[in-house]
Amino acid sequence: MLEKSLHGSKRYWLWVGFLLAVIFLGFLAYLKQYSEGLGVTGMSRDVSWGLYISQFTFLVGVAASAVMVAIPYYLHNYKAFGKIVILGEFLAVPSVIMCILFIFVDVGRPDRILNVLLHPTPHSIMFWDMCVLCGYLLLNLVIGWTVLGAERKGFPPPKWVKPFIYLSIPWAISIHTVTAFLYAGMPGRHLWLTAIMAARFLASAFAAGPALLILLCMIVRKVSSFDPGKEAIQSLAKIVTYAMIANVFFYGLEFFTAFYSNIPGHKHPLVYLFAGLEGYGQLVPFMWVAVVLAFVGILLLVVPKTRRNEKILPFALISVFIAAWIDKGLGLVLGGFVPTPLEHVVEYTPTLTELAITFMVYAVGALLITILYKVVIGVREEI
User: Which of the pair, 140 or 4, is modelled with greater confidence?
Assistant: First the structure.
């Protein structure tokens, strides 16, 4: 079926060429980082996780969001999701691959990644994070490709794939829960030391991931004859709405706990993110933009009239997606390092090398999504 990705319009090949150019330039930046070491990044002794890990954290949620179409379709036989469930699974695959790539580029000696497999440490959360990520990638590849192949031949999916489908549902929840445990298990970082970290991760994932999936469905509908259906888009938009409301609610709980208890360690990271601390506050504008976008997105999605308006809906979904990205892709990780255990404020700014490598990884993900969706569209148009 991959041969269908080799046929496309001029616009399709221009897009593929652009992504390949970004990947090439980013790879040159990575060769520089590999040669000179992580000293070319903005990371330091006090900020050991930067842009790479923050993007990894965000994308794990995007990958896990495929479960929000799998549960209604496979467990509750919600037929409206029949056309988009494969798109959700094929969104999860590039998302997990991007997660793995961000881990790869974050490690100064990427050849040592194999040590996780060669010398496993089951008492480490990182070991289990690697297991659930690789397992989820394999599950979605097998399920998506098998179901699409059966659909192309006009047959129902083989019975042997159903146990893998059911297994992928709790597995999707586990990948983000285990990633949340990486943060919640660090007593020295007060912003992360919270019992509801996993709940926050899942709520933001189930808002940002389906929001992106709807946007991709709209793009697919515009550039091809494949129509995922209005009912599917509207149902998924409702899921985005309630998930984002839950995400904002959980964030509010963090504020209440920090400021009502008046514990300095819990207050300082939030003060840094939203007001600045000791004269430092480069993330403050981003966080307030996230707040505005979150409430604008929720308002537009809660009101049925604006949610059903497909000229307004993309703006609402983009607002939700960007708000979730700022929260988890910037604020959560970078804010967690302020202040340091010695009560100093050390800010982090990514270098051009880091930005180029980050764009490279995202371009790889965009290229994989383009290829996989081209295959899906080709099969659907064929039958």
Answer: 140
Q: Is 342 exposed, middle or buried (0-12, 13-18, 19+ CB in 10 A)?
A: exposed
CATH superfamily, domain 2-382, is: Formate dehydrogenase/DMSO reductase domain (1.20.1630.10)
Q: How long is the chain?
A: 383
pLDDT digits (tens, 9 = 90+) for 221-268: 888 888 888 899 999 999 999 999 999 999 999 999 999 999 888 899
Q: Which of 62, 63, 51, 66 is nearest to 103 (CA)?
A: 51
- The whole-model pTM stands at 0.93
Encode pLDDT of 201-220 as tens digits: 999 999 999 999 999 999 99
- Return d(Cα 240, Cα 226) in angstroms, integer: 23
- For residues 158 and 143, what is the distance between their CA atoms, to the nearest angstrom? 10
Asked if residue 210 has a cis previous peptide bond (ω within 30° of 0), the answer is no
Fill in the DSSP letter of residue 341: T
Q: Distance between CA 181 and CA 197 in Å, rounded? A: 8
DSSP secondary structure code for residue 330 in this structure: I
Q: Average the pLDDT over each of 31-40, 117-126, 326-335 and give the range with the smallest value.
A: 117-126
Helix (H) or strand (E) holding 191: none
pLDDT reading at 71 higher than 90: no
Could you tell me if 216 and 373 are in contact, meaning their C-beta atoms sit under 8 angstroms apart? yes
Torsion sign (Cα): 327, 330, 335, 337: positive
Dihedral over Cα of 140, 145, 148, 149: its sign: negative
Q: How far, in Å, are 81, 163, 217, 368 from residue 373 at the CA level?
A: 16, 25, 10, 8
Q: What is the pLDDT of residue 205?
A: 92
Q: Which of 153, 59, 165, 150 is nearest to 102 (CA)?
A: 59
**d(C-alpha 251, C-alpha 265), whole Å:** 17
**Helix (H/G/I), strand (E/B), else coil: 53:** helix
Distance between CA atoms of residues 231 and 347, nearest Å: 46
Report the Cα 76 to chain-centroid distance in Å.
Answer: 25
Token digits for 132? 């659930």
Query: 317 in the Ramachandran plot: left (φ > 0), alpha (ψ -120 to 50) or beta?
Result: alpha
Say how far apart CA 38 and CA 27 lie, in whole Å: 15
Average pLDDT score, the chain: 90
